[in-house]
Amino acid sequence: MGSFLFSSDQKQALRMSRHLAAAMSLLVFTFICVLFYSNNLFAIGKLTFSYILGFFWAGVFLFTLTFRLGLNQRFADPSLTLSQIVWGTTFLLTITYLLNESRGLILMAYFGMFSFGFFKLRFREFLSIALFAILGYTLIILYLFVYEPDRIDIKLELLRLLAFVSTITVMLFTGSSIHRLRERTKNQRTELQEALELNKTLATTDELTGLYNRRYFMEKLAQQKALSERDDSDFVICYCDLDRFKNINDTFGHHTGDIVLQKFADILKSSIREIDYAARFGGEEFVCLLVQTDMENSKKVTERIRDSLANYNFSDIAPSLNATVSIGIANFKEFNTIQETLMCADHRMYAAKRSGRNKVVFSDEKTAE
Predict the structure, then answer these.
(1) Could you tell me which residues come within 8 angstroms of residue 7 by beta carbon, excluding any fewer than 6 positions away?
(2) What is the CA 26 to chain-centroid distance, rounded?
(3) Under DSSP, is residue 290 helix (H, G, I), strand (E, B) or coil?
(4) Which residue, of 72, 101, 106, 230, has the fewest CB within 10 Å?
(5) Is 284 one of the annotated active-site residues of the chain?
(6) Are residues 218 and 347 in the same domain?
């Protein structure tokens, strides 16, 4: 039964549960009306009374079907709070008219009905439903006074109307205050979540390039080491260092140097897969973690990175500006420790610089490419 009524969508399931809570409240009101009818407090026949109850409950089932089919999501307020309260208020107004001298007893039910709007309705919406109830009750009194005076004690009804208006007014401001408090809390929760996400981003990424920082990269290396030891897979570390970067800063300025770092970071991100990691280790040094791969594929990736930077057109920044990178790569299975793999990639990067820069070195032999 639960799986039939409730959607797998959490928001839809919550809306359905709130609707069912409102339907249960209306069921209690209906039971009270049946008790009133059994004590001869209504001025209608049994068949008419049954038709009225059936009509309003058909509306309740229509709401249930709307939620179950997801049709409510087409409306501005998918919870249909205002529509449900209007329907419930119309039911109570009808019962109020049909009751004899004891109609004041049903007025308490309005307050329970309005309480469902405390957390969803804004002030204008709450005001509209409050005016609807007050106007409806006033019209009932006027109609009975003009056309059915034997069913009404006008002085008593006016006192009831005054008490009803006063209580509804208090509920109006209470409900709108609760709604504002809820919206403020919701906004604060959203802002807190955004702040937490920002802190998480700042704690794991380099502010200038948007790549991961050294600490986060080392955490991922440790995780990848454990994974590789468990499933006997391999991974490759690529150590990259921009060539003569100090000359770029001295010649074109640090702002231009920052742009070069950002462009190279973009090249790294576009050259590796989503499952790989790229980080800025500091200054002009960058590292990549290529997971579940071997040296042959890593050579292709790093050569593509080297070639992309060497042929990048920086003319829009500075006409004579060009940049290259030296790269050293080492695979984990060759050393079986993170520290030794990193050191080997670092040494091979320096070997690439000694052999002329703008090269990729993938072995300790003299095989720089």
Answers:
(1) 13, 16, 68, 70
(2) 33
(3) strand
(4) 230
(5) yes
(6) yes
